[in-house]
Amino acid sequence: MSNPFDDGFTMPAEWANHARCWMAWPARDEAWGEHIEGAREAAAEIANTIAQFEPVSMVVKPKNVAEVSLLTKQGVSQVSLPHDDCWIRDMGPVFVTSADRQVAGIDWNFNGWGHRYPEYDRDNAVAEAILESLKMRRYDGDLVLEGGALHVDGAGTLLVTEAVLLNPNRNPNKKREEIEESLIRHLGVKQVIWLGEGLQDDFGGGHVQNLARFVKPGTVLALTCSDSADPNHRVLSDNLARLKASKDAAGRDLEIIEIEQPRPQFDAEGRRLALSYVNFYLPNDAVILPAYEDGAADKKAYDTIARLFPKREVIQLPAIELAYGGGGIHSLCLPQPAGNAASVTA
User: Fold this and answer.
1) What is the pLDDT of residues 326-344, one digit of tens each?
2) Residue 110 pLDDT > 90, yes or no?
3) DSSP assignments along 134-194, one per residue
């Protein structure tokens, strides 16, 4: 069976041009509780903002069509598909592109973040359904893996975490070497950089999308914590040390830009919200950056991102309601690269 790399496909960087952004409507009542309406309002605001820069396709259940129509504006279309919740970055396809601008999709296995929820079959079917709707070539991923656990620079370097990819609740019978080999075959990368643990109480179990992101090849934006009494201090310091000791696929030392986490906040049950300024989305010509009701830290994050992306419009939107459901702006958005759908039969 062929794989994306042998067929000339690689995973592009998120700052590459997009055809559209895929999103999904918050739907799992037991996950959101009293925050579901706030999450839906936040999702609508994010969709409407992204639609100013690229089309948005919103996955919705039939019962939510009227509500979504009322809350969203021009540029946001609806795609009726069964799904369990809104985190399409994790359950949707990982898109890959070729040198001749063909686009295909990888359908990894999704098990509800290590069986965090007993029902995830509908989410696990979303990637295949999206690729069928696009009449786009689909590759079977041979790992249990979420899109939020992967981040590439588009030039051969991949960031992942041990906390997710080596967790026995995902791929208990695979060794690190086997997982790396699969990532290389499917994503076309040459260098895999392993970070360690994730944020305290991270819903995804330690997603890299909350820890570190490339802003260009060779340059990484890393979340940090200056409070030594904070449980995230040890984790983020360890990940920072790993980045400083790493080289990218071109053999370069990484330039690392540090960004301080927002102040700790908790839900009604005392679970810490996994808040990260690294969890932003890059639509065409813009940055959609989270704000967490932390004035000084929010402002500093805005200034840092504006400096890193001088040619993009930076828009900061409230994301605290999304955090109550375990995710953020990046988790809610899945970019489809610009290009032509690769033939299903090739």
Assistant:
1) 999 999 999 999 999 999 8
2) yes
3) TT--EEEEEEE--GGG-EE-SSSEEEEEHHHHT-TTT-TT--HHHHHHHHHHHH--SEEEE
Residues forming beta bridges with residue 334, ordered by sequence position: 22
Phi/psi region, residue 4 (left: phi>0; alpha: psi -120 to 50; beta: rest), is: alpha
Could you give the residue ranges of the DSSP H alpha helices within the chain? 29-32, 36-50, 65-71, 88-91, 112-115, 121-124, 126-133, 162-165, 176-187, 231-244, 295-308, 320-324, 329-332
Write down the pTM of the prediction: 0.97
* Gap between the terminal Cα atoms of the chain: 12
Instruction: List the one residue out of 335, 273, 210 whose CA is nearest residue 39.
Output: 273
The CATH H-level (homologous superfamily) assignment of domain 9-341 is L-arginine/glycine Amidinotransferase; Chain A (3.75.10.10)
Distance CA 41, CA 21 (A): 18
d(CA 277, CA 281): 10
CA distance 145 to 110: 6
What letter would DSSP give residue 5? T
